């Protein structure tokens, strides 16, 4: 039982972290341009964009 | 779209404008546009959205949209300002559903973790603890993730109707309430896992449905063009100033330059020009108008500046008349009930009476109210239309994805359902059966030098004939000749000097009976014939539609002669010189005789007919009104997508019906178990996930339906 007292809160907390992170990503438009993200990898950044 | 965006303090307020740039194809384009724009003064930042082919430019208020369009064009990309997006709010609703789905997924996994322990034999205090933990997770999750269903069910009940959400809400609420009671009294079975899992699967269906709508709307929003935003008004003292459309009033005099659209209806008081009315009336040839003639809002001034005295603005213009006609015509369609809701009409009462019967039966059999209620809830959970809720959206999403790859954007699921029912097709002519712009048919009559001169002359004019000649010559990789003193004489054509030879491109001396243009170089003369070509595979597409059981005919606003040319070439019947009202009446007549009419049209004049038809499709070159009124838009030059959409829609409905059969078959097996009280939470969970997986798997078969 004492193991459960630690493991269950930890599992729930980790799940919640994931959920919070997902909400953050949605709010910050991380899923707006999925194809673009794949393309942007290929851009050479010679000069720092302003 | 202009919106004030807050930026870091100390800087003036920036404005965000959005542009459609269809030519964005690679990473190179992204960096070229972003770096090229943000280095310009007055532009704070530029961000390309590759998926939607849009650029959002954050800039200072003093830079106008048309300046930005030019900036993007100098970078080598055609750009179009995106008008206010009335659909943005809809997108928010999908975002809410995705959040609810994430919460339900989180809850489902954690509760399942606890439930598995209970199923594998946890007993006594451990089981009670796990049930309490499940309740702790499940109740907030259900309160949050269940809102879309509860809200819609409450709405339906308030109007005394029932939809799919009513049995869902009742099932979930009852299951949660009973499980809470079980937990409090230390009972053996709690259905928190079942209730949350149900929510998860149903939300997945809703999210799919919403994503499908958004995807098509983004595509269509990207094609929307801004209508004339205003006009240059001539003041009494002779000065001109820019007045926005909504501030125009009758009796103002507006100056309309060549190439501009009219922002209001009016009478020409000075100058003469020709007008492109094709979107308004379907007439393919430019209409000459001079002093004293009416010019309508939405038509395009082609050749020379005119001054127009405004007679009607805003709500009173002919464009708005058409919009009103469209609203009326759309009424009929709003009565359409989607297939899932039709199923729910029978399903919900059946399920509820079954659960009630089970409860009453076990009460009489002496099982006690607690046991009887448990069985009734098990029946509700088992029969909850989990598979039904997924059956329709999953099939429609896969099908619309398949169609999208073929260049057809379907606006929503109900469009697919109605497409499958269509059994008669009406085509508009100009811009629908034909490409909508005249192209020269005898370019071979010109020598290379003549082609170069023609191109240089045609480039300088906005007349549709010139445009057609220009695009045909550009397609042949012709370089324009170097000309001097290029002038456009309204109604006559273009003239210039080439070296010391006079060259002209314009109206032939012997006025031919259809579109043509005459090139003179010194003393040489060549007459170019132009035709508004029929779409390349129109005949095959119509034959295929006929094979599918959809007879076709033409209804056009153009004159009899142009229409009969097309109708003879395609071998189908036609009605010419039809007003927007006539088109609606033709559709009503057909509907009254029992047909489900598919209308294919593009113009403003087709708007009411597109809205009145059972289902409608517009080409990508259509007017804003056409695209908004239509259920689907196809972007290719070919007409085949129309036949293809019908085929895919019918195939989709087949799959949907199969899925219904699967879901009902599953119920026939599972309900007796539930009625006899043998369903434990474990069996309910397995049955639910299995049936959902099966319908999704079946829907995936549609992936290749458009090939």
List keywords for this structure.
heterodimer; A: 50 residues; mainly alpha; elongated; B: 707 residues; alpha+beta; Alpha-Beta Plaits; Calcium-transporting ATPase, cytoplasmic transduction domain A; 5 domains; seven-stranded mixed beta sheet; six-stranded antiparallel beta sheet; 17% strand; disordered N terminus
Summarize the structure.
The complex is a heterodimer of chains A (50) and B (707). Chain A is built from 2 helices and no strands.
Question: Could you explain how this protein is built, in words?
Answer:
The complex is a heterodimer of chains A (50) and B (707). Chain A is mostly helical and 50 residues long. Chain A has helices at 2-27, 34-40. Chain A is elongated, with a radius of gyration of 19 Å. Chain A starts with a helix and ends in a 10-residue tail after the last helix. The model of chain A has no long low-confidence stretch (mean pLDDT 82). By secondary structure, chain B is of the alpha+beta class. Chain B has five domains: 3-82, Alpha-Beta Plaits, CATH 3.30.70.100; 90-220 and 335-386, no CATH class; 230-262 and 264-312, Calcium-transporting ATPase, cytoplasmic transduction domain A; 400-435 and 535-649, HAD superfamily/HAD-like (Rossmann fold), CATH 3.40.50.1000; 439-531, Calcium-transporting ATPase, cytoplasmic domain N. Helices cover 51% and strands 17% of the residues of chain B. In chain B, strands 15-27-26-25-16-23-24 form a seven-stranded mixed sheet, sandwiched between helices. Chain B starts with a strand and ends in a 7-residue tail after the last helix. In chain B, 46% of the residues are buried. At the A-B interface, helix 1 and helix 2 of A face helix 1, strand 3, helix 3 and helix 4 of B.
């Amino acid at each position: 039982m004492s193991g459960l007292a630690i493991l269950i809160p930890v599992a729930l907390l980790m799940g919640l972290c994931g959920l919070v992170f997902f909400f953050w990503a949605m709010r910050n438009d991380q899923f707006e341009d999925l194809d673009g993200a794949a393309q942007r990898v290929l851009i050479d950044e010679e000069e720092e964009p302003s | 779209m202009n919106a004030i965006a807050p930026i870091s303090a100390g800087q003036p307020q920036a404005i965000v404008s959005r542009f459609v740039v269809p030519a964005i194809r690679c990473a190179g384009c992204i960096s070229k546009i972003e770096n090229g724009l943000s280095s310009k003064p007055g532009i704070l930042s530029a961000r390309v959205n590759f998926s939607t082919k849009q650029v959002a430019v954050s800039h200072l208020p003093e830079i106008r949209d048309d300046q930005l369009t030019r900036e993007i064009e100098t970078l080598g990309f055609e750009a179009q300002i995106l008008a206010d997006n009335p659909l943005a709010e809809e997108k928010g609703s999908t975002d809410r559903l995705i959040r609810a789905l994430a919460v339900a997924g989180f809850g489902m996994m954690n509760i399942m973790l606890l439930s598995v322990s209970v199923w594998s034999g946890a007993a006594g205090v451990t089981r009670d603890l796990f049930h309490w933990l499940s309740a702790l997770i499940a109740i907030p999750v259900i309160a949050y993730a269940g809102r879309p269903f509860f809200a819609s069910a409450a709405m339906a009940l308030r109007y005394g109707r029932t939809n799919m959400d009513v049995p869902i809400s009742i099932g979930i609420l009852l299951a949660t309430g009973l499980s809470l009671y079980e937990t409090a009294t230390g009972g053996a079975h709690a259905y928190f896992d079942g209730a949350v899992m149900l929510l998860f699967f149903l939300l997945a269906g809703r999210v799919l449905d919403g994503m499908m709508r958004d995807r098509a709307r983004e595509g269509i929003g990207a094609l929307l063009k801004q209508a004339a935003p205003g006009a240059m008004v001539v003041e009494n003292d002779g000065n001109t100033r820019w007045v926005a459309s909504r501030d125009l009033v009758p009796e103002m005099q507006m100056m309309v330059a060549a190439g501009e659209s009219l922002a209001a209806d009016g009478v020409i008081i000075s100058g003469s020009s020709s007008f492109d009315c094709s979107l308004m009336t379907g007439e393919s040839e430019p209409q000459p108008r001079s002093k004293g003639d009416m010019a309508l809002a939405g038509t395009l001034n082609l050749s020379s500046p005119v001054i127009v005295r405004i007679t009607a603005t805003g709500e009173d213009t002919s464009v708005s008349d058409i919009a009103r006609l469209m609203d009326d015509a759309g009424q009929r369609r709003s009565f359409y009930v989607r297939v899932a809701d039709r199923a729910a009409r029978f399903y919900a009462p059946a399920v509820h009476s079954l659960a009630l019967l089970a409860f009453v039966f076990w009460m009489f059999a002496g099982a006690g109210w607690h046991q009887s209620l448990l069985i009734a809830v098990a029946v509700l959970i088992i029969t909850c239309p989990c598979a039904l809720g997924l059956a329709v959206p999953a099939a429609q999403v896969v099908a619309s994805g398949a169609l999208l790859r073929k260049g057809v954007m379907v606006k929503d699921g109900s469009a697919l359902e109605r497409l499958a029912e269509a059994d008669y097709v009406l085509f508009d002519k100009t811009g629908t059966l034909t490409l909508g712009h005249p192209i020269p048919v005898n370019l071979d009559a010109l020598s290379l030098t003549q082609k170069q001169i023609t191109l240089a002359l045609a480039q300088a004019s906005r007349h549709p004939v010139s445009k057609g000649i220009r695009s045909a010559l550009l397609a042949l990789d012709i370089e324009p000749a170097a000309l001097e003193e290029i002038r456009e004489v309204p109604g006559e054509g273009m003239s210039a000097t080439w070296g010391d030879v006079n060259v002209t491109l314009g109206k032939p001396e012997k006025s031919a009976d259809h579109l043509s243009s005459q090139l003179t170089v010194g003393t040489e003369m060549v007459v170019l014939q132009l035709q508004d070509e029929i779409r390349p595979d129109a005949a095959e597409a119509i034959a295929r539609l006929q094979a599918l059981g959809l007879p076709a005919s033409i209804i056009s606003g153009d004159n009899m002669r142009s229409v009969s040319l097309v109708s003879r070439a395609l071998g189908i019947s036609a009605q010419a010189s039809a007003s927007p009202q006539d088109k609606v009446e033709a559709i009503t007549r057909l509907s009254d005789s029992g047909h489900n009419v598919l209308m294919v049209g593009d113009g403003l004049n087709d708007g009411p007919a597109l809205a009145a038809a059972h289902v409608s499709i517009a080409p990508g070159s259509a007017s804003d009104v056409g695209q908004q009124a239509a259920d689907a838009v196809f972007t290719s030059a070919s007409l085949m997508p129309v036949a293809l959409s019908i085929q895919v829609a019918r195939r989709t409905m087949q799959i949907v019906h199969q899925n219904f059969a699967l879901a009902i078959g599953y119920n026939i097996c599972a309900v007796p178990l539930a009625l006899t009280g043998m369903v434990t939470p474990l069996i309910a969970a397995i049955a639910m996930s299995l049936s959902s997986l099966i319908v999704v798997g079946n829907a995936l078969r549609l992936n290749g339906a458009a090939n």
